[in-house]
Task: structure prediction
Amino acid sequence: MKKVLALILAMVMALALCACGPSGADNSNPPSGNSNPPAGNSGEPGGEGVINFDEDPYEVSIQFVGLFEANNDVAAVEEALNKITLEKINCTVDIVPVFIGDLPTTTSLGVAGGEKLDIVVAGLTSPVSGMVSDELILPLDDLLAERGQAALEVTKNVAEAQKINGKTYGITGCSFAAVSGGFVYNKTMAAEYGIDMHDGMTLADLTAAGEILKEHGVYLTSFGNSYQCNYKFIAGGEYFGGASGEYGGMVDPANDTEIVNIYDTQEMRDYFKAVKTWNDNGYLPAGQLTDTTTIQEYFNQGYLFGTSTAYTVNQLASWLSPNFESGIVRISDPLLSTSNVTEFMLAIAANCERPDKAMDLINLIYSDAEVANLLQYGIEGTDYAPVEGTENVITYDGTPNADHNGYFASFVHYGNPLDLKIVAPLTDSYYEDVVAFENSAKKSTAFGYTFDAADYSTETSAISNVLQEKLPMLNAGQVQDVDKAVDELVAALKTAGIDDVIAANQAAFDAFRGQ
Amino acid sequence: MTIKTKPQAAGQTSVKRGPLKTFLHWLPFYLMGLPGLIYLFINNYIPLAGLQIAFKNFSYSKGMWKSPWNNFKNFEFLFKSKDAFIMIRNTILYNVCWIILGMVLGVAAAILINEVIGKVKKKFYMTVILLPYLMSAVIIAYLVFAYLSPTSGLFTNMLKNLMGKAPDFYQETVWWPFILTFVNQWKGIGFGMILYLSSILGIDPSLYEAATLDGATRWQQHRKITIPLLKPTLIMLFILNLGQIFRSDFGLFYQVPMSQGALFPVTQTIDTYVYRALLKTNDVGMSSAASFIQSIVGFIFIVTANKIVSKVDKSSALF
Result:
């Protein structure tokens, strides 16, 4: 015991000496500049003297959300992390892999059952506002002010979007949150058939592409049995309550302040009519509503040309195929909206024993590039390898982690994006591109606003059901008469009570803007 | 006589022994029953405290006991919406139809299997009939899809070749009451058959021998012997099934129609509605409320049916 104590005291002294140097000169990277990411120690976690090195190190658990990867290297990554965290914030790290489908229950049952939970991933599978009203996560403002300076600094441009009712509940992994609508496509095929794909394409351009593709026996796209509103990817817009606009939306969010039922707009009708012509002309596969093969899979096989998707600087990474070159075009204008910020958030569980230590770790993730990269990608050499001739580009190919079973999670974004390495085929220009894209985005009038629909659960559950019933057929263009089907959808939404929800949403939004 | 006097004597002595002695006398038996009772208590009675969640605005950090009450607000979503009628109608009508059909087909299958002579053949047929019962709904969904798929379905293509066109099964509601009924019976008949068969095997063979000697045909034997002797089993299963009348086989209604929106008017049941409505909100209180209602309705049905049965024929009642 004495030995341990002596060791800790020695460490505190050593650290105190180190801390004298760079204190005050806070080097945490301003998000606008492109500082060289994996530069090593940058910034000081929290303020001086905040971290108590005399106590036994606390073990902070952090969720690591993926699919079915084996994550065999978690222990090795933890060990590498602990070397840094013990020294800097006197705690150890416990990385807890979670299957994305289990995330909501793991978190809620963990809090309810008092299991050990510290840092949880919020906003990914359940909205942050819901987690707040369920009292699953803690408000972080005091902790952030006291020991979260770096995290605050990195996310300062999106700080308002991290707040719910004026309080911060999570720190985003998407501090560059601009998104536009886009269309990802098979570039090899486009060149071969002479299809002109360019930014700012219209529905008519896509229809023309569909005609050319039909001659070559390839489908333009497929929508599957989906009840999200794909029109968002064509026209952009602000949708409240998820990808189908359950609580209404705004068509031109950079200027609009009135929330409407997005399905009751002429633009939506025109879009559905265009999709119906696609279907009638045979640009879409016949059995798409019952087809359970994923669009990714069909895309890889060259069975379809492309699909509408959200456009971000690194979106293309999820659409790569070994068989051909992929491309992506931007269709709508980039927009900064709350929902993009709240998708990948780190929050602290309500039953966390030591929120202060959890915050120390969050802050370290945002200030220390080495920690962020370890957590995001694992250990260099075993879990990934640098691509030769580049500064910060890495690849999984040729490493033991090529099958993603070493250390890989598709659904986490830790820390400052400018600190993180990037995965090929992104190039070193990524850091500039992402900043430029962010700066070109318009801010939604509802940026920072979230509608808490807890009082309208009866209506929202009915609305959700109506959309699941009526939207897939419209999405797939398989209705007889678009106008009639849209009228029916709008009428059913009205009966389900969407007008009440929108009115409440508008009232809350007006109050938000009045602040 | 001796047999009759013995219990009396025992009874008299036990009265003399007093309650404590009686208790001590039965103690070993109580002890033998204890593990089972403890299990029942832990597994079936302690969780009853959780019923309160249905009436609370559940907060994970406050826990079950400290969450605030919100009376019947959790129940509203089930009844306030316009879908309530459709889902309750579907749930009850499908169940009533299937309970009756399941009985008729189950008994018929049991009788027919019982007629099969030859042990190997009997086992073979039983296995074949039971097999679908052991399949997961997802596999069944794909089996159905293999027949009815609009593009590659076996049955759709057959119709196309024979008649020139085929209906788009996954977009037309009219077919699904029949498809679901067929699938449900095909899947469930094996289990019902085994229950009835075990009762049939318990029937004294001498009854049939006597009937044969009297010149009764096979049909008459079943009508006059098998069915009347199956009555207690039939009534018991009927009452137990009524307890499930407000529930539905989620896999059958969700997976088999491939969750097609166009089919909701005939495939939406209480369970699928609750799943779809709460997929996003994740509200424990509301889902508990739905489950609570299902249990209460099932309970009322069981008690009422039992009451009616006991009025008609006391010995056949469940309790």
About this structure: Chain A touches chain B at residues 104, 108, 111-112, 126-127, 130, 134-136, 225, 227, 242, 246, 285-287, 289-290, 292, 350-351, 457-458, 460-462, 464-465, 468-473, 478, 492, 495-496 (CB under 8 Å). The longest strand of chain A covers residues 58-66. The first helix of chain A runs from residue 2 to 20. Chain A has two domains: 46-177+338-436, 181-336.
